[in-house]
Design brief:
The protein is built from eleven helices and 14 strands. It is an alpha/beta fold and about 350 residues long. The chain folds into two domains: about 120 residues, 3-Layer(aba) Sandwich (Aminopeptidase), CATH 3.40.630; about 210 residues, Rossmann fold (3-Layer(aba) Sandwich), CATH 3.40.50.620. The strands form three sheets. It has a seven-stranded mixed sheet with strand order 1-2-3-4-5-7-6, with helices on both faces. It has a five-stranded parallel sheet with strand order 10-9-8-11-12, with helices on both faces. Strands 13-14 form a two-stranded antiparallel ribbon. Helix 9 crosses helix 11. The protein is globular and about 65 Å long.
């Protein structure tokens, strides 16, 4: 192991990139197309024998040539990637790996959180990270079963309001998770504010942040980034599996989602929820979309109208609280982001 050293792979180094692709394919790993940094280990002949990459706060695409297993190369590549992240100031790390490789990561400080059988294992470098996350949500728990909503609210529309009203009326307790990662055109601060304004009329609704364990760059990057269906399905299944543990901790036995006629990615996610949740005793309730002028309301359509300078036209598609917020000084940043974006539709 002392003879090997991991080095950064330059994006324009076609030979190294080709070797990385070949090694990943050889080891049965699909290359992630949303990588921000990659490294490799080469033997004395210049052949790549191990590789690993980064995206945001995750380590991924980890592979070691089968002929070199047992030489400690996984430890070298992972240690290198951890150091790169630490140099960037990123200390809470997650990783994906093949199920058969997970045992090699535990000695390096990573703890398994969840797995998709025969596909991937999801791990983090904090032994109690997930437990602490659940503990932080304990105030939302209850003795009677409750329901869950998960929203990006980008921005909050009458469609979201319809879903919220349905859940609030049919359950004694509702936990509404707002996606907290700032990857959407409407900043998290604004999305959270709009949801809270709309939910204030329901005393049985708790509005909380989703954190890193729910539809995030760590658990479900395909939600924010275009990816192939196989990768998206795997990420969706992982996120759904993690949700079952969150639901068990908070005594949530229902999850409400909106019917999805527009976004292919969200449709795949709903399919994953339907495949995973019932097996854990969680009922998935798919609510037909609210409509305006005979068409299903979507946040994408609202963003398109804002982008095109038709701000007044969104009044029939969003609650008064959303319109008032977006047209106030607090909403200026959200409007600016949407109007300056080249793409506002979520696929």
């Amino acid at each position: 192991m002392d003879d090997y050293m991991a080095v950064a792979l330059r994006p324009n180094d076609k030979r190294a990139q080709a070797q990385m692709d070949a090694l990943l394919e050889q080891e049965g790993i699909s290359r992630d197309h949303n990588l921000t940094y990659s490294a490799g280990i080469f033997d004395e002949s210049g052949i790549m024998v191990a590789t690993g990459s980064l995206f945001e706060n995750t380590l991924r695409c980890l592979a070691v040539d089968g002929a070199h297993r047992g030489e400690g190369l996984m430890a070298v590549i992972v240690s290198h990637l951890i150091q790169v992240q630490m140099d960037r100031g990123i200390t809470h790390l997650f990783l994906y790996t093949k199920p058969e490789s997970a045992k090699y990561l535990a000695p390096l400080g990573f703890t398994e959180i969840a797995r998709v059988p025969n596909r991937l294992v999801f791990m983090e470098n904090r032994r109690d990270g997930f437990a602490r996350y659940l503990a932080g949500l304990s105030s939302c728990s209850g003795n009677t079963p409750g329901a869950a909503l998960v929203m990006n609210a980008n921005p909050f529309t009458l469609g979201h309001a319809h879903l919220l009203q349905r859940a609030a009326q049919e359950n004694d307790r509702v936990v509404l998770f707002v996606l907290s990662e700032d990857k959407s055109l409407v900043p998290y601060r604004d999305r959270l504010a709009m949801v809270r304004l709309a939910a204030a009329q329901y005393p049985n609704v708790h509005v909380v942040s989703s954190g890193s364990y729910m539809i995030s760059a760590a658990t479900f990057p395909s939600y924010f980034l275009k990816d192939d269906d196989l990768v998206t399905r795997t990420h969706a299944t992982l996120d759904a599996t993690l949700f079952t543990r969150i639901a068990a901790s908070l005594n949530l036995t229902r999850r409400y989602v909106g019917e999805e006629p527009f976004s292919h990615t969200t449709c795949l996610y709903n399919d994953a929820l339907q495949a995973v949740l019932p097996a854990s005793g969680i009922e998935l309730i798919v609510v037909p979309r609210a409509q305006a002028a005979g068409q299903a309301i979507s946040a994408s359509h609202v963003r398109q109208l804002i982008h095109d300078g038709q701000l007044e036209a969104i009044q029939s598609l969003v609650p008064p609280t959303t319109y008032q917020y977006l047209t106030s000084p607090d909403g200026r940043e959200a409007i600016r982001r949407i109007q300056e974006a080249s793409e506002v539709i979520h696929h």
